[in-house]
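Q: what sequence does this backbone want?
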């Protein structure tokens, strides 16, 4: 679980707002390309497909992460205990293989000392562990806009996992291609994931995990409001500058687990990975050549990252009071070589856009974190449970500038941040099926290396933006969880006060400058229901009310001020979700879902916003079972009533290109064929 890692999370008993979604639910009647397809039932989670695979999904929890220009901020993401979030807090979801997910756990709020450098919470993903009998499966999906996804998976074991030499394995691979809903948004993505485990002896196991992803994606960019209204599929600057992004990432991890005694367990997880990224941006030639300090319009990144997490868990009892203590040390490091080039070349007096030109930036960035942590849980009485913990987080940045020319001095620099992060919760079991709890915790977010990169849009101020401070958030939550038949009803009331909130000061011409906004406040209510009834019927409902505002007036160096009381951009005040499905093990199955998103402010001034929308989806299919074979087929239609709406916004985009349109009515069909070795 998130509190007791990899031991199986209980949504009812965990004294914090947490939701668990099974891998089967993620794969049922979906394209299996994006996490956004099936996580709408999680309260407090705002996850949106930007229709732009060059920028990844837009994911935020309780409003944390909404400012991210790309990737995931403010939320820690883990896959099989390996962080998909770098030491500086920047994460991504492109390497997550839905085809092999066992479950996704979403912890909302900073209530675990086992994870650091995030205020919104944790998304923890476990992939399938192979078991008997061995299965082979192949899946395919075809949808609107020329979208294809083909996948294969093998899973099994040579024993039941209890004897020395027993081996389990899960290997999965997929390929996805699409022309894209918008112009200049074609993508191809290859993804592989594997997990191989071996029982070394009676008390220890060793698990090897590997993952590889390759993406080549065009970048359609944002639109102004008039562009969105006139032609939402257009990409005027994408076509002109041939904006695009390519990335290749490979990583390997090793986890060793040993029962040191009946009460003590050691877990050692280590990993190493490399990520190569090249991105072409839509920056006018005049802007790039205006200042010798401007870094150009092509970004080339080469990253090597690694880490080790050593964890000890002790279970014991003092008198009649059982307790557990988990302590450990987490060390993560990343070395980045960042280069910038002009996104044009000039030959024979002619300028060709979208081509890598002269070098304009060359630096080496090194970052690491070292975090000791301790967390404990006490069953004080049959009714009362107390959890407490702390983590001391140290995050270090160091940058060495190798591009020093006339008008562009040495921009080297370093920065180090420290923070003690306590948490605690008290749970009361009213009945065996009803728990109420109160939790409090502190979250911590440092600026990412990307947020430190620029001090101004114009490039006149060079060097890292080392004046940025980390943000600190204190969250208090009161919650209730109740078993209702075969379902779970949850409610959480929370407030988060943040000092030095990191926000976008301005985003223009492919670069974003950040500032500390002083004080902000998030308060809200989350309701969730996951109910199964009449054997084969399943209903899910979620509602989120989130009021996220500035608590004081915030001004930047230009004198522009954001008034106290303005809403934080990128965050919906209300989100609603409901689905109903008929889900028998074989024969016909069908489902319907509806999603509501209230309006989203696009900038700090609150004078531009994406309108609210409601969309509906339907799906139906048939599952055939023949002895060792099974075939599951489905068809679906999304945005049934062809609503024209904005799927996501680019916060504080300096040219007013805030809007990333979502597709109208679209269709898909798919099938999965499975053979089981009996």
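A:
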């Amino acid at each position: 679980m998130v509190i007791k890692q990899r031991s199986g999370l209980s949504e009812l008993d965990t004294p914090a707002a947490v939701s668990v979604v099974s891998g089967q639910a993620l794969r049922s009647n979906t394209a299996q390309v994006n996490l956004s397809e099936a996580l709408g039932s999680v309260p407090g989670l705002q996850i949106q497909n930007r229709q732009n695979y060059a920028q990844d999904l837009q994911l935020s929890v309780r409003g944390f992460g909404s400012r991210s220009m790309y990737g995931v901020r403010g939320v820690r993401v883990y896959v099989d205990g390996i962080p998909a979030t770098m030491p500086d807090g920047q994460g991504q979801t492109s390497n997550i293989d839905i085809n092999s997910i066992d479950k996704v756990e979403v912890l909302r709020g900073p209530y675990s000392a086992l994870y650091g450098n995030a205020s919104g919470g944790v998304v923890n993903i476990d992939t399938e562990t192979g078991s008997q009998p061995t299965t082979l499966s192949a899946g395919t999906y075809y949808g609107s806009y020329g979208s294809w996804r083909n996948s294969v998976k093998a899973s099994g074991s040579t024993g039941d996992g209890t004897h020395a030499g027993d081996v389990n394995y899960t290997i999965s691979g997929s390929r996805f291609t699409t022309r894209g809903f918008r112009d200049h948004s074609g993508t191809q993505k290859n993804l592989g994931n594997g997990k191989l485990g071996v029982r070394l002896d009676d008390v220890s196991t060793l698990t090897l995990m590997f993952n590889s992803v390759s993406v080549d994606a065009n970048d359609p960019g944002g639109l102004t409001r008039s562009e969105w209204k006139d032609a939402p599929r257009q990409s005027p600057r994408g076509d002109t500058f041939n904006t695009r992004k390519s990335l290749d990432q490979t990583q390997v991890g090793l986890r060793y687990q040993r029962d040191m005694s009946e009460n003590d367990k050691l877990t050692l997880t280590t990993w190493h990975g490399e990520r190569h990224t090249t991105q072409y941006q839509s920056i006018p030639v005049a802007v790039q050549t205006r200042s010798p300090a401007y870094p150009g319009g092509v970004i080339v990144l080469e990253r090597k990252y690694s880490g080790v997490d050593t964890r000890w868990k002790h279970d014991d009892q003092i008198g009649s009071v059982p307790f557990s203590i988990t302590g450990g040390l987490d060390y993560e490091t990343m070395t980045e070589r960042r280069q910038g080039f002009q996104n044009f070349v000039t030959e024979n007096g002619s300028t060709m856009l979208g081509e890598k030109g002269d070098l304009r930036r060359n630096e080496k960035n090194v970052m690491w974190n070292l975090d000791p942590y301790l967390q404990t849980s006490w069953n004080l009485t049959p009714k009362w449970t107390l959890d407490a913990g702390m983590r001391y987080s140290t995050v270090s940045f160091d940058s060495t500038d190798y591009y020093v020319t006339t008008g562009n001095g040495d921009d080297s620099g370093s920065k180090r941040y420290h923070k003690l992060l306590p948490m605690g919760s008290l749970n009361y079991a009213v009945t065996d099926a009803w728990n109420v709890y109160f939790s409090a915790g502190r979250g911590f977010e440092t600026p990412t290396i990307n947020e430190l990169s620029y001090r101004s849009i114009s490039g006149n101020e060079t060097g890292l933006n080392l004046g940025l401070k980390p943000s600190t958030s204190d969250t208090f939550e009161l919650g209730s969880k109740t078993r209702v038949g075969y379902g779970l009803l949850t409610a959480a009331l929370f407030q988060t006060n943040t000092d030095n909130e990191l926000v976008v000061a301005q985003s223009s011409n492919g670069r974003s400058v950040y500032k500390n906004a002083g004080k902000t406040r998030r308060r809200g209510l989350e309701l969730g229901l996951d109910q199964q009834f009449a054997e084969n019927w399943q209903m899910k409902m979620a509602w989120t009310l989130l009021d996220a505002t500035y608590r004081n007036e915030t001004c930047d160096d230009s004198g522009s001020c954001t008034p106290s009381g303005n809403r934080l951009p990128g965050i919906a005040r209300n989100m609603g979700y409901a689905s109903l499905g008929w889900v028998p093990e074989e024969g016909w199955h069908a489902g319907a879902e509806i999603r509501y998103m209230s309006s989203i402010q696009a900038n700090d001034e609150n004078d531009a916003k994406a309108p609210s929308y409601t969309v509906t989806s339907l799906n139906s299919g048939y599952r055939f079972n023949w002895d060792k074979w099974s075939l599951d087929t489905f068809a679906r239609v999304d945005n049934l009533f062809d609503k024209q709406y904005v799927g996501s916004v680019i916060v504080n985009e300096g040219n007013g290109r805030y809007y990333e349109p979502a597709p109208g009515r679209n269709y898909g069909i798919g099938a999965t064929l499975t053979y089981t070795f009996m």
